Predict the structure.
Amino acid sequence: MSDANGAVTDAGLRSAVGAVINTEFGRRLDELGMVASAKLSAAGTPEITLDLPTPAYPNREGLKTAVQAAVRAAFPAAPEAAVGFTWRVRGTDAGGRIGLKVHNVIAVGSGKGGVGKSTMAASIAWGLKQAGARVGLMDADIYGPSIPHLLGLNEKPQVVEDYGPNGESIRRMGAVELDGLKVMSIGFLVDPNDPIVVRGPILHRTIQQFLQETAWGELDYLIIDMPPGTGDIALTLSQLMGLSGAVVVCTPQKVALLDAVKAIAMFRKVNIPVLGLIENMSGEIFGRGGAKAKAEELGVPFLGEVPIDATLRVNGDAGQIAANFTEGCPSHAALQHVCERVAIQIAKEVIGRPKLPSLEIL
Ligand code: ADP
């Protein structure tokens, strides 16, 4: 696609790059809206900028190589293309219905307690934040809020001035911030030693208030740590907004997988798409691979396995989730992988799906 003299043109570059198949999505880059710019520099070097759907995009190097190969094939005489990246998280913007400026809401659930659901929810939130996204983490595990403990937070949320849908000044609860991650938990508001007794209708209202009356600001991802098992809160959430999807955490043993199957069925029942299954605590004790096989059987994506690892427990007990994301942590790569898979699955749910009609966003 060169001009009459065989020279490279910007249009020719754009069409060569646009035709590259993105292997994550199985679609062309132009269809995905990922070619931000394609032009020749003054010095004659092809310069390509790709707009990724998430900052947690895995293997940018592979994408760069594919684009360079396509440019080389189309214009063998041109210098090697320079490929750069930007990112912009797209979303269902479903929070608009209840006045939240949140692109994607993701529920993290499990069939039963103790499988590491809260650890995974906090890790996904932290990993996406580390990648550069604007992230919130809401602890909806109202019966056993463990997020404050895992993140080492014990502040009380402050009342802050915020703006309502029509620009009017209103008061909200300020989320507690941890290095830019916005966190809200009922654990901030009640004594950790007091059992929390909340019944159905109050539960519904509490969750709605938590979502609506927190000053989240603008977020790319809001991760919700769900209570295990029960469908009540999933139903409440699905009635309040259209979630991007749910991630189900399980451990590898057969009995635990049965609970995961129930959790998947529960999310499907309330029309929340299941983004996939994470196998946590895989290794010697519980075995491994069970969740992957189950995910295939159920037709849901497998989002990765995180080994049983004493460092994770120690860091969790010490309120040091950030330490899981340092090079020294044996599970760092596994957690990073899970974050990337979750981000890609969310993008798959969103790209090419019509935008939900939303009321005026704050
Ligand atoms: P849930 O939310 O499912 O009840 P938690 O996230 O609170 O589970 O985790 C339960 C316990 O297991 C915590 O002490 C946590 O630190 C520990 N844990 C979670 N994942 C792992 C893992 N992969 N290896 C070792 N310990 C883990």
About this structure: Residues 110, 113-119, 146, 280-281, 306, 308-309, 312-313, 316 surround adenosine-5'-diphosphate (CB under 6 Å). The two ends are 46 Å apart (CA to CA).
